[in-house]
Amino acid sequence: MSDHKKPEWFDPNNQEGFASSLKPGVELAADRNKGSTSKFVKKQDASVSVQELKKGILSGDRARLAKGITLIESNAAHHFDFAQELLHSVLPHTGRSIRIGISGVPGAGKSTFIETFGSYLCDRGHKVAVLAVDPSSSINGGSILGDKTRMEELARNPRAFIRPSPSEGTLGGVHRKTRETMLLCEAAGFDVILIETVGVGQSEAIVRSMVDFFMLLVLTGAGDELQGMKKGIMELVDGIVVNKADGDNVPLATRTKSEYNRILHFLQPATKGWAGKAYTCSAITGKGIPELWDVLTDFSDTTKKSGVFQERRRMQAREWLYSLMDHQLKRMFYKNEAIKELLPILENEVMSGNKTVTAAVKQAFQAFMDTLK
Amino acid sequence: MSDHKKPEWFDPNNQEGFASSLKPGVELAADRNKGSTSKFVKKQDASVSVQELKKGILSGDRARLAKGITLIESNAAHHFDFAQELLHSVLPHTGRSIRIGISGVPGAGKSTFIETFGSYLCDRGHKVAVLAVDPSSSINGGSILGDKTRMEELARNPRAFIRPSPSEGTLGGVHRKTRETMLLCEAAGFDVILIETVGVGQSEAIVRSMVDFFMLLVLTGAGDELQGMKKGIMELVDGIVVNKADGDNVPLATRTKSEYNRILHFLQPATKGWAGKAYTCSAITGKGIPELWDVLTDFSDTTKKSGVFQERRRMQAREWLYSLMDHQLKRMFYKNEAIKELLPILENEVMSGNKTVTAAVKQAFQAFMDTLK
């Protein structure tokens, strides 16, 4: 679909409601400077390029994968169309991974854990992609995974692929981009997807909605930490990992594990037929890491056998469909010129008690429909 | 606005998404049987009747008030228009009350409390309207305030007006009807509005969004009760009333009060500049009831002086505007014939992994816009 055929309310540049700081032309120029990217932004050979890119990604070509992700993350309209075409073409090759969400307060040791855990999996023949959903990235330009040196060993591993959080956009936009990036990684043969997030705002719920297993990384001393923990997060977890169970810290970590197990015991399991538990491990010594992978394998086997795994994936796709649709619906209405003009007036009348809310809503819809005639 | 001028997507009969069991004709016939109601459903003299009804309500005529509320609660299109016209005409006479939300688990003694509290206020010259938001009413046809005998004394009081929860509709519909009923009551001179709710589902948040002061009625023995209490409710309250502080129960009630005070002390106040506290009272002996009214008067004075009272009312009106608008927006889209037909197909394609969510959303909006051309 070319740009001029797009209805004006559907604006992929700004699909998630964020104000792009990049003009499409600037984005294009920047891409040209990167060299080969310019090849597939030309419309005349778009289909060839999608095929090329698809072939590259399916063969596990990391440069092509990175390019595909860049297109997904781009705010330019033609990149959007290209990326959707690419995604559609690789869709039959997606889904064959275990998607693991990893959350935890800053300081819980997420990077070191992912470094050790990811390297262990690579050594066992897995291909590991590490992505991030970072609610703070739109403010400070990316705080997690941004500093690749934090995972030096894993970053150098040819079987691993680390991609920082998309640095621009609202959580909604980051949400879409991370989901679609995950699909491309799966198409490229990555069979373990780790999605890191900081326990802030809505990010855990969003990560929970896109992964199979949701893991919470905690520090020793449950009591204090729970105080500062976001309400409701315990209800989302399939497993809690008490990190830093090494040296003098071992007895405390073991005690913490019991405390969390006691709490989990009282909660409804996040996944039907899977009783979430707490575990200890040390990202430094590697102790507990193989056992943790056994837990994940057990989770995958158990939930695939019961059908819960497949059903959750289906439901996640469905929920994501409605969530994006609702988002787009609000954009269509609230970005309508007539509504943008009328709303402040109606708001004022309603707030000052000169109009009933019901009458105001009716008037707004009348005005909206008039613009569509 | 006559029926045929209404765009088809704006369906006041079903405005809150509930499936009405009443056909407009049936409703009309039923109203005719009630006698005078039939007078104002005839369109030719609608403006006269609005004036008549308005006059009656402003003079405090209870029969006219009841009729106005019946119109607000009606699911028939012409009743809807009539009710909106009526509401608009009395709007300048609304808002001059204190709106008090009263929540508490079943068994906390809400009816007895309202009976005693309401009677006390009537004796002091106030006019008290008692409404209800009952999330269970759509299931069992109204469980709270439905049995008027529970408040026999208050129901007989000429200064009191008791109206059970609208028995039909989703919580969204009940929400609108209760808000608009509250406005009519204010126009009829009721200066204390008590809105009762059962602490179930979303009802407390909805009641909180329409009242000035939110009161939680509790039983003695805070610890046990808190376990079963909905999370987040403590953050909504302006005051906690430990009921049944009579006889042997007094020491326990006093202890319970302290326990709740300790909890409240740790929470952010629900109303800026007002530190919520716990109080004891007995609906049987009446002890503590005058003091409770003093608290409410103090609340009203304090928040009006600081402007918090007025600002909250303005914000409540604004939030209600957006909440109803979003609701209507979803109705417009999801009830569209093209969307109703297309969605199951898209859902299936997305759930089986044959289409990306982004592409599905784009397709749905294209189809929706095509129907509006």
Automatic annotation (TrEMBL), chains A, B:
GO molecular function terms listed in the Swiss-Prot or TrEMBL record: GTP binding; GTPase activity
InterPro entries: GTPase_ArgK, P-loop_NTPase
CC per GO annotation: cytoplasm
Chain positions covered by the region annotation Disordered: 1-23
Any Pfam family hit: MeaB
PANTHER family hit by this protein: METHYLMALONIC ACIDURIA TYPE A PROTEIN, MITOCHONDRIAL, METHYLMALONYL-COA MUTASE
NCBIfam families found in the cross-reference section: lao (TIGR00750), PRK09435.1 (NF006958)
Family: Belongs to the SIMIBI class G3E GTPase family. ArgK/MeaB subfamily.
Protein name: Transporter
Organism of derivation: Peribacillus simplex
